[in-house]
Write a structure and sequence with these properties.
The chain is an alpha/beta fold and 250 residues long. The protein has 11 helices and 10 strands. It binds adenosine-5'-triphosphate (ATP). The site of adenosine-5'-triphosphate has 11 residues, from helix 1.
């Protein structure tokens, strides 16, 4: 059974229909890449999966998204809890103007139920899992803003991991970074994919083919094709997918 899925999901910004009935599901574990030309609705779709679009007043949604079988758009959903279970990493690293340590424990401080020793341990484990521990272990109490962009992004990923999510949504997580930093993040994501279900928007087709297990191709608010990554890149079934991945448009 899919851990998270959408059914006939339509999303409108005012009158503009940005998602035109998306039905797809994500199995537990692994990385799914969402690809497609600019404006096709990839980021909009990603944000529907943990209700980040709630923050935009002009948005209306029909259809549903369910996480572990429950409708996340139900009025009973606790969105703070939902966004812990389904965490999000953005294109621009967005650490808070606090220390590295305080960034990582941000979500846990709000819960207020961990001892100092537990917090120390979670900070270390999360930074190790995000492959940034060696860079920051001697300056945990320095500002996260003093780090490089790539290190900041890995600290942001550690902040998501610290609250033990099931699903991690990544919106072009490496597009603001240089190739070396991007490579470190790709390797780190590969290391995490046994434990987490990851869904990643990317413009970078090499990145999608290197690290994702499944790929979904979006075009003008429609889901055109969704399959194992190697099928999408080597043997697409739809002409539009083939035209896009061979660079005929986009
Ligand atoms: N906050 C918003 N308000 C109004 N329209 C929006 C908003 N965000 C996105 N849109 C519109 O919705 C459509 C889909 O945009 P979206 O950002 O989801 O596409 P995308 O595939 O992620 O594009 P990109 O690759 O350029 O980030 C576009 O027509 C866009 O202009």
């Amino acid at each position: 059974m899919a851990i998270i899925e959408s059914n006939d999901l339509h999303l409108y910004y005012g009158k503009n229909e940005a998602l035109k009935g998306i039905t797809m599901g994500f199995d537990e574990g692994g990385i799914t890449a969402l690809i497609g030309p600019s404006g096709c609705g990839k980021s909009t779709y990603l944000r529907t999966l943990n209700r980040m679009n709630d923050l935009i007043p002009s948005v209306t949604i029909t259809g549903n998204v369910s996480y572990k079988g429950k409708d996340i758009y139900s009025p009973r959903t606790d969105t703070v809890m939902l966004r812990k279970q389904i965490g999000m990493v953005f294109q621009q690293p967005n650490p808070f103007p606090f220390s590295i340590y305080d960034n990582v424990i941000y979500g846990l401080r709000l819960e207020g139920k961990h001892s100092k020793n537990e917090l120390d341990q979670i900070v270390e484990e999360s930074l190790i899992a995000a492959a940034v521990w060696d860079d920051v272990k001697d300056k945990l109490h320095k500002s996260a803003l003093s780090l490089s962009g790539g290190q900041q992004q890995r600290v942001c990923i550690a902040r998501v991991l610290a609250v033990k999510p099931d699903v991690i949504l990544l919106d072009e997580p490496t597009s603001a970074l240089d190739p070396v930093s991007s490579g470190k993040i790709e390797n780190m994501l590969l290391g995490l994919k046994e434990q987490y279900t990851m869904i990643m928007v990317t413009h970078n087709m090499q990145q999608a083919s290197r690290i994702s297990d499944k790929t979904a191709f979006f075009l003008s608010g429609d889901l055109i094709e969704y399959d194992k990554t190697k099928n999408i890149f080597l043997n697409p079934k739809q002409q539009q997918t083939e035209d896009y991945i061979t660079g005929k448009f986009g």
